Amino acid sequence: MTEREAAPKADSAQANAGQANTAQGAPVIADESKPSEVTYSQSGGLVALLARLNISVALTSYQSGLLYMLGRNPKGGLHLHQCGMPKPMGVKHEADGSLTLACGYQILRMENVLKPDQRVNQLFDRCYVPRTVHVTGSLDAHDVGLDGAGNPIFVNTRYNCLATVDPKHSFREIWRPSFITDLVQEDRCHLNGLAMNGNEPAYVTAVSRSNTIDGWRDRRSDGGVVIDVKKNVVVCEGLSMPHSPRLHNGKLWVLNSGTGELGTVEGVETGRGRFVPHTFLPGFTRGLAFAGNFAFVGLSRPRYKRFEGLDLDRRLKETDSEPWTGMQVIDLNSGRCAEWFRIDGSVAELYDVEVVPGAACPMTVNPTSSEIAQLITHA
To answer: Within 10 Å of residue 37's Cβ, how many Cβ atoms?
Structure first.
C-alpha cells in the first residue's frame, strides 16, 4: 500500500512521504511510498469542486493492480492514496457506507472502521477494510452492486451472466441474456456493465450478441447493446464497446467507449432506445459516476489491440488530440469538461470510477497486507 500526496498548487500531484501519526483510538498505517514511472496532474479547481460536493473519488486499474482513492488533504491539496489489489475492477459505494469491489478472484465487502472523530496518520477520515471476502475464482468479474439482502450482484463476464455469491460454489447464476444459450466458461458477448436501480439490476451492457466463444471481438465497432434485465430484451443497439450504464436523474447514461462518448439512451422505455451523445472525451471511456450535476468519467489510452481500429481513432485525429488516462469531470449543463485528473506514464488503463460521498480523504487496506493483521477494531 502506498500513498501519494499532491501539493496544493494547481496542476501538480507530486509524491510526498507522510508521517505515521494517529489520533487517539485510530489505527496507525505506515507510509510505504515507492518511486514509480507515473506522474499525476490535475486542474486548478478540482480540489475545490471535491470540497464543494463533499466527496472523494475511487478509481480502479486492473493494469496497475491499484485501487486509487482521490481526496483532499487538510492543507488544501489533492491526495492520492494507492492500495495494491489483484486486478481491481468494478467498485460500488453502497447506501450503508460500505464499498463493494470485484478484484481478481474475489468479491470484497469493505467497511469503514473509523469513527467520525478518528483519523489515520492525522489525515485519513475513512479507512475501508475488507470484512467479507467471497472467493469466487477467476471469473473476470466486472461491475458490481448489492441486492436487498446485502448480497453481491456482479457481472460474471467469463460465464456471460449476472451472478451472486454462494456458500459452497464459486457463484450462482441469477440472469443471463436471452441470446446466450449455455452457462459455459466462454466469454461470448463480453457482458461488462451493470446499472442498478436501488437494489435491483436494471440494465447491462455487452459488446455484442455473440453466442460463440470470443465472438464479441469481431463486433467491437457496432455490435454493442444495452439490455433491460427485467424484460431480458435489447433496448439499444449499434454501439461500440459500451460500458458503465448508470441511472441518474431519471435518465439511463452509457459510455460508448469505442467512440469516446458519454451519452444517454433516449426512448429506452419503448424498447427501441437510441444512443444520444452528450460529450466526446479524448480516450477509451470506461467508469462513470455522478455527483450533483457532474459526471465523473474514466479515460484510458487505447494501447492494446482490443481498443484499436475503433471510431475513437478517427475522432482523435479530427480533434488533433492524443488519448490520455485519468478522469474528466463533465458539467452536465454545458457538456464541457469542468475539471480533470490525469495519469501519465506506465499506467494506461482504468476500469471503474465511483463517487464516495461525505469523505474528504479516504484510504483502503489490502486484505493480504501486513497492516491488516495488526489493524484490530471492535464494536
So the answer is: 8
CA-CA distance, 275 to 193, in Å (whole number)?
Answer: 16
Report the SS3 class of residue 370: helix
Cα 343 to its chain centre, rounded Å, is 15
CA dist 192 and 207 (Å) reads: 8
As a whole number of angstroms, the distance between CA 292 and CA 306 comes to: 33
DSSP 120: B
What does each C-alpha distance from 327 to 68, 225, 287, 314 come to in angstroms? 12, 24, 9, 21
- 241's grid cell: 464497446
The count of residues in the chain is: 379
3-state secondary structure of 316: helix
Closest listed residue to residue 367, CA positions, set 173, 88, 166, 165 = 88
Cell of 220: 467491437
C-beta neighbour count of 113 within 10 angstroms: 19
Are 245 and 204 a contacting pair, CB within 8 Å? yes
How much is the average pLDDT of 281-303? 95
d(CA 282, CA 101): 27
pTM for the full predicted model? 0.90
Dist CA 283 CA 206 (whole Å): 19
| Res. 36 pLDDT band, cuts 50 70 90 | low
In this structure, of 1-10, 120-129, 156-165, 227-236, the range with the lowest mean pLDDT score is: 1-10
